[in-house]
Design goal:
Aminopeptidase; Acyl_CoA_acyltransferase; alpha+beta; Bact_Acetyltransf; 196 residues
Length: 196
């Protein structure tokens, strides 16, 4: 069966939380210590239910299995799950602000299949439809090569405190959007599945 990208719904939250934990613990261990990963999962990398309520968070499924999740936001918060304290829900102005690319996680067994790219192209298309012409994100060190391949720029690392004695390095990245650019066969959005 083909992969399907759709809008996440409330019933997806437990599966997304499980996927995020599995993805972070396996894929980020080359770039972060175990203590950093666990601290990040308690806040910076958790599920942001505001994105789900806004209809801007996406999941990719195949044969009923969740392969990845991620999305975009029209709010000022750049990263962080529900437990992360430094959040700003103020709405952005597409005429002057960049849309935020948020919380991308892929099942470690699904790497190299285009799951992340499918989510990203779908998110970018939705943001363009909402009037945005550029994006910004806070990339993990693990995610930087992927975002570079997708046209994002940024080099300087920033250190973010997570918990007393535990900091984590991220890379702020940006990308301008060419309005007439279309990626054939990618970026179509299915509606949420019926509640289970």
């Amino acid at each position: 069966m083909a992969m399907v990208c759709r809008i996440a719904c409330q019933d997806d939250i437990p599966a997304m939380a499980t996927l995020i934990g599995r993805s972070a613990r396996q894929l980020c261990r080359a770039d972060y210590t175990e203590d950093q990963v666990e601290a990040a999962l308690r806040g910076a990398w958790g599920v942001d239910t505001q994105l789900v309520r806004d209809g801007t968070y996406l999941v990719v499924e195949e044969a009923g299995a969740m392969l990845g999740c991620g999305g975009w936001s029209f709010r000022r918060t750049l990263f962080g799950g529900d437990a992360y304290a430094d959040r700003v829900p103020e709405r952005l102005d597409p005429a002057r602000d960049r849309a935020k690319v948020r919380a991308f996680f892929v099942d470690p067994k699904q790497g190299g299949r285009g799951v992340g790219r499918l989510i990203l192209t779908t998110a970018e298309a939705a943001a363009r439809a909402a009037g945005f012409t550029s994006f910004e994100l806070m990339a993990t060190l693990t995610g930087v090569p992927f975002y570079r391949r997708c046209g994002y720029e940024g080099e300087a690392q920033v250190r973010i405190p997570l918990e007393p004695g535990i900091d984590i390095d991220f890379v702020p990245m940006t990308k301008g959007i060419v309005r007439d650019q279309a990626i054939a066969g990618e970026g179509s959005l299915a509606q949420p599945a019926a509640p289970r």
